[in-house]
Amino acid sequence: MQVVLFDLDGTLIRGAEAIPGAAEAVEACRRAGVQVRFLTNNSSVTSDQVGVRLRSLGIEAHSSEVRTSGQAAAQLLVERGFRSAFVVGEPALSAVIQAEGIEVIARGDPQRADAVVAGICRSLDYAWIDEALQHLLAGAGWVATNTDRTYPLEAGRVQPGAGATVGALEAASGLTPILAGKPNPEFIRRWMQQEGWPLDQLMVIGDRLDTDIALAKALGSPSYLVLTGVTTSLPDGQAGGADLREWVQSTFGGPRSETSTFSRG
Q1: Domain check: are 103 and 169 in the same one?
Q2: How far apart are CA 104 and CA 102, in angstroms?
């Protein structure tokens, strides 16, 4: 194991709280000489914002170690030759797209966009959906940062994820978007190649079967499922535990959580 790829929401953090064992897991990796990287499907934050947020919660992280689904979408636009995009999402998504040299078409601008990009959008309204639909019907490409249905918060609460935004546009247009973020493995393959790390030396740790664990399977990498986010039980054969303290104990040694359960795949 040369590098561990940690999911954020539901794995290391929930809302404004660090999940028990999160800081210790990251520290254990660094102490053992294992590289740490962070990957989030949350397109409402930049890598710099993620780094600041994690450090404020006692988790050592640097922006250069972080990738977001917004960055994945921006790179996909570049690769597909799209020069402009109409964005349905938070300001951070527009910012990372602009940083790649893609023009972001403002709401109300009559210019037709080359592509529509949708992510989590907490201020989504009917007019925004309608405007994005007109771009799609005019032939714009269609990119989703991710299709996560929910987003885990403190005390086990969830809120609608990007899947709610994407679902509205899918229903209206009848079109299926290109998926940029997890579980699409291409963004991670390129990242690992740039870092010079073989995929068989990568471990993916997350809380969602349909994104984190599916990504690991697509990459051919081992995975570990924590039950601190969306998923509440371990499928047969899936390595995982109640929280990251179990993974630290099984991987690096140390005290075991009395309330956790560990299943080796």
Answers
A1: yes
A2: 6
Check whether residue 116 and residue 170 sit in a common domain: yes
Q: Is 207 a catalytic residue?
A: no
Q: What is the model's pTM?
A: 0.91
Cα 150 to Cα 110: distance, rounded to the nearest angstrom: 33
* Residue 260 CA neighbour count, 13 Å, CB half: 22
Kindly name the residue from 9, 148, 212, 243 that is annotated as catalytic.
9
DSSP 212: I
Question: What pLDDT score was predicted for residue 151?
Answer: 87
CATH number at residue 96: 3.40.50.1000
**pLDDT in the model for residue 156:** 85
Same-domain pairing of 11 and 75: no
Same domain for 251 and 204, yes or no, is yes
200 among known catalytic residues: no
Q: By 3-state DSSP, what share of the chain in percent is helix, strand and coil, each rounded to 5?
A: 40, 20, 40
Instruction: Supply the pLDDT for residue 119.
Output: 98
Find the catalytic residue in 7, 114, 212, 243: 7
185 φ, ψ (degrees, to nearest 5): -85, -10
* pLDDT at position 128 over 90: yes
Q: Are 160 and 187 within one domain? A: no
Contact 46, 69 (CB under 8 A): no
SS3 (DSSP) at 184:
coil
Model pLDDT, residue 253? 84
SS3 103: strand
Domain range for 35 is 3-41+182-263
